[in-house]
Specification:
Blueprint lengths: L1 H16 L1 H21 L6 H35 L1 H6 L5 H33 L8 H25 L3 H21 L16 H10 L1 H13 L5 H16 L1 H5 L7 H9 L9 H5 L6 H27 L5
Helix pairs in contact: 1-5, 1-7, 2-3, 2-5, 2-6, 2-7, 3-5, 3-9, 3-10, 5-6, 5-7, 5-8, 5-9, 5-14, 6-7, 9-10, 9-14
Length: 317
């Protein structure tokens, strides 16, 4: 267990230090925080548009980070030959592969938590037509110069890595900004905590983070045989196919074994998109969230089992 935790921790740290991780995190959080300014002064339902746009950034950013980081985590080790050094110690191949996937999932979880916090702040900032709530928008926007400036100063003063420090400070900063906004009443109606934030969005956002865990497992398994770009492309194809599986495979499920097999393999991405439930005012039932988490973990576990089987038969230099 100690070796598993050590490998997972180092994998998470390596993932966060990659420039792509900071770039996607920064673009996602900044895009979410700026949505009230881009979508607020419209004739439509601005809060809903802000929420759906932020959810889309959370979804796509998490999938991209998970797939790329997981494929690079194991595939990079195999290409550089450092996997053989790690496996020369008392660490099984299955343990090594699973720890890589868990480490990437932990890194992506940080991105997801910060994205959910930014989404809560953005929705509150644009909740009232024609009037921005600066008690939510202000703290969110202040995070970026403070986090990036502190990471740059830390890099210049002590030579510490900029990317991982910037990511960590952005994550912590969004949490602090959410806490500051939660302590302030909404100017328009005077609502105070906990009614001053839409916590149903947080539950839907947490469920929307689960596909990233699935993508990390699939990319880790595929990187045993495929290069990084190939593994990411296959993961993207799987999730794109899962979104249209009902339309393309639905009419053939009763007649074709191959249609049923493909339908079982493809991830049901629509099960994790719960904005319709929020529109209906139903919220996210705890039982449904638990079922979605169980499905995601089972799907990820199946891919990791297949990856462990292939990794056990691969030649590692």
């Amino acid at each position: 267990m100690r070796a598993f935790l050590a490998i997972a921790r180092l994998t998470a740290l390596e993932a966060v230090r990659r420039p792509v991780f900071l770039l996607v995190t920064l673009c996602g959080l900044a895009g979410t925080s700026l949505m009230p300014f881009l979508l607020h002064y419209t004739l439509g339902d601005a809060p809903r548009a802000i929420r759906d746009g932020a959810m889309g950034l959370l979804w796509t950013g998490g999938l991209l980070l998970a797939a790329w980081s997981a494929a690079e985590a194991l595939g990079g080790e195999l290409r550089r030959g450092t996997a053989g050094v790690a496996l020369s110690k008392p660490v099984g191949r299955g343990t090594f592969l699973a720890a890589k996937a868990v480490g990437v999932a932990l890194a992506v979880a940080g991105h997801g938590a910060a994205s959910v916090a930014a989404m809560l702040l953005a929705v509150r900032a644009g909740a009232v037509e024609w009037h921005l709530d600066w008690t939510a928008a202000g703290p969110a926007l202040a995070v970026f110069p403070l986090a990036l400036g502190a990471a740059a100063w830390r890099n210049r003063r002590w030579g510490r890595p900029f990317g991982s420090a910037a990511c960590g400070l952005l994550w912590v900063g969004m949490g602090v900004a959410l806490a500051v906004a939660a302590c302030r009443a909404v100017p328009s109606d005077g609502a105070v905590f906990p009614r001053n934030l839409d916590w149903g969005i947080a539950a839907a956002g947490a469920v929307a983070c689960l596909p990233a865990v699935m993508a990390a497992a699939a990319a880790t398994a595929l990187s045993v045989r495929l290069p990084t770009v190939g593994a990411v492309a296959v993961v993207a194809a799987l999730f794109a196919g899962g979104l249209v599986a009902d339309t393309l495979l639905g009419p053939w499920l009763e007649e074709s074994f191959w249609a049923r097999a493909a339908f079982a393999v493809l991830p049901d991405g629509q099960a994790f998109w719960l904005t319709d439930a929020l529109d209906a005012g139903k919220g996210v039932p705890a039982g449904y969230a638990a079922g979605a988490a169980g499905y995601a973990l089972a799907w990820a576990g199946a891919w990791l089992a297949a990856g462990a089987w292939g990794f056990g038969r691969a030649e590692v230099g």
